[in-house]
Amino acid sequence: MKKVVYVLLVMSFLIMVLNVALLINYTGYASSDSEGGTVGLTINAQSEESEEEAAVVSVAPSKGSGGKSSAVRRDFSVIPGVIKVLLKKDESFKKSIVIKNTEKVGQSFDLEVSESLKNFVVLSDYSFAVEPGQEKEVFVTFVTSEDTEPSVYTGKIVVRTSSKRREVNIVASLISKVVLFDVSLDVSAEYREISPGGDLLFQLTLFNLGEVGKTNVTLEYIVKDFEGNVIFNEIEVVSVETQISFSKSINIPKNVKPGEYVAIVQARYFSSLGSSSVIFHVAEKKVDLISKYKYIIIALVILLIILFLLVGIYEIRKFRKELKRDVKRYNQKIKQKKVKRKVKRRSRDREFIMEKVSNIPGKLLALEKGFKGGYISGKSYKSGKERLKKLERK
Predict the structure, then answer these.
(1) 196 vs 3, which has greater pLDDT?
(2) Angle between helices 378-393 and 294-358 (to 10 degrees)
(3) Rounded CA gap, 95 and 140, in Å?
(4) In angstroms, what CA-CA distances link 3 with 16, 313, 321, 393?
């Protein structure tokens, strides 16, 4: 029985160690903060670094280094990290980004505009060098024409060196020349970071700018990434007279990758198009370890219950055996004491009787002398003699 208990204890301990190891291994899924950035309409100057595409700079070995080369990752900063512009057809708009070399050596930079923006985004410089501690201002010009389709365009400007890359996210909202219905979009802080498969909840307000009475307006809900890919698209028709506000929920697909996305609402009425957008973050999905390993946990709990029951049964049986053994010993001791007392009592009775019997002849002689001498009556003599005879017979 002891061997079974020990085996179960070892198995239970090994399963517990396995579960703890799994918990520690998956703890990292709860965190998804980007480098120096915050999620929302305003994002810090530093965009998230893409580790997969970052190269490594090999530095030539110096004298006395034993021929070994070292790898360094030279850093730099880009301000701002996100650009949002609103412009009409056949207009142009200019913004700038500042690239600073934060290292003590000069660096060469290459800039690239994503495919989704190449038709109307032009950079003042695409390749240049920056001295240590110096800055370079690059102008970003948004140019549209009559042929540019009104919509919300997303993309990025990639800034690369030989060892690192940073990105500037772009949201360009192109609206019609005449906007009859405008729209505003607001996402609360708690919904600016969600998990894949979660719901993005926002407050939407649609404004009739006064040139049209009560009518139906087509609302288009779009979610895009910063490569210009459409993640979600839905169309809804609402009736508005002057102004209408309501909440809307969009379910984010489960298969989207973690990163920054843009939620867009476009209000379309014939050739009129108004739009609003907001940036939100999709975090890495947190792993529900209890659900993932529920069968292992259930098996562990059942095993522990069985173990405790077996240990309990073993301890109860052991206690009963010890109790019976103790009771038996106690009864034996009591019996031995009783026998000793009985033997001792019989011995005392025998000695008393022997003492009494040994004195009978003398007592009879004394009784007879007293009767003859007239000291006792005949009746007393007779009764005393009979009593002594009886005692002698015993």
Answers:
(1) 196
(2) 130
(3) 5
(4) 20, 14, 19, 72
Helix (H, G, I), strand (E, B) or coil at 13: helix
Which residue type does 144 have?
T
Q: Are 223 and 264 in contact (CB under 8 A)?
A: yes
**Domain residue extents for the chain:** 38-60+69-175
Quick check: 228 and 114 in contact, CB under 8 A?
Answer: yes
Burial (CB < 10 A; 0-12, 13-18, 19+), residue 149, is exposed
Express each pLDDT in 280-301 by its tens digit. 999 887 666 666 677 788 888 8
pLDDT of residue 59: 42
- On the question of pLDDT at 1 being above 80, the answer is no
pLDDT interval class at 9 (50, 70, 90): low
Residue type, position 364, single letter: L
Burial 75-93 (b: 16+ CB within 10 A, else e): bbbbebbbbbbbbbbeeee
Rg, Å, the chain Cα set? 52
Q: Given phi > 0 = left and psi -120 to 50 = alpha, else beta, which region is 36?
A: left
User: For the chain, where are the alpha helices, taking DSSP H only?
Assistant: 2-25, 289-292, 294-358, 360-372, 378-393
Q: Report whether 78 contacts 84 (CB < 8 A).
A: no
Q: How far is CA 96 from CA 247, 312, 335, in A?
A: 35, 76, 109
Nearest CA-CA partner of 207 in 149, 275, 279, 277: 275
Burial 170-195 (b: 16+ CB within 10 A, else e): bbbbbbbeebbbbbebebeeebbbbb
CB 53 within 8 Å of CB 62: no
How far is Cα 349 from Cα 343, in angstroms, rounded to an integer? 10
38-60+69-175: CATH topology: Immunoglobulin-like (2.60.40)
Confidence (pTM): 0.57
Distances from the Cα of 7 to the Cα of 4, 266, 278, angstroms? 5, 67, 59
Four-residue CA torsion sign, 139, 140, 144, 150: negative
Sequence-ordered list of residues with C-beta below 8 angstroms from that of 33, at least 6 positions apart, any chain: none
The distance between the two most distant Cα atoms of the chain, rounded to a whole number of Å, is: 171
